[in-house]
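Pilot study result, target chain (244 residues):
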Amino acid sequence: MRSAASCAGRTKPTITPTRRSRARPLCTTARCTCRCLRSKSLPPRNPAYECCTFRGAVLALDAYSGTSRWKAFTIPTAPREAGRTRVGTRILAPSGAPIWNSPAIDAQRGVLYVGTGENYSSPANDTSDALIAFRLQDGAMVWYAQKTANDAWNVACMLPDNPNCPKENGPDVDFGASTIVLRDAKRGDLLLAGQKSGWVYGVEPGRARQDRLEQQGRARWHPGRRALRAWPPTANGFSCRSRT
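Predicted structure:
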């Protein structure tokens, strides 16, 4: 593993003007991966704002030069006009599915895993509130597994009668924390992911098949692990066991 500093500050990903990144880059061999989210849920407060053009993305950089190797989006197709609000503002969809978390690298399978957030405009698509595996070599999407369907939300939904609020109006249950790959030679590997809904999911990394889930509070930012016990972050202090 190389220092994450190798890919910081050399390449500025061009996605949208208000794009930002909250999690640290992650490096393996000569490649670093950085994920991008955007505060796109904020501008729709203005009823004249066309929501939204943003899609969550993962960017792979050369660890030595900072040059881009590949960029992969959480929503494969670019947003396009899907309708108009009652005041005539264009609705652009599908949009959103941001990545709040640092990727989890699975070198054994040659993939990285991320969790996504809600869509920003309606209609919602099937890669929001999902777990996604991207191929390390070229960023191709290997599989995705949506855990909450029809979740579209932005800050307009917090304002009275704002026409930019998607018809779904939430529930806004991102995968805020990074996923965890647990290795178990006897029982098989497990991909753990905590969602803001409070559900903690256990997924077979190779097939995206759900193995186990438990509801243990409102999972958000920084998960941890020790042996075969995992402590996803929660708001009400509960912890969660992995398979026993």
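One observation from the pilot: The CA atoms of residues 199 and 215 lie 4 Å apart. A full batch analysis is planned for the follow-on phase.
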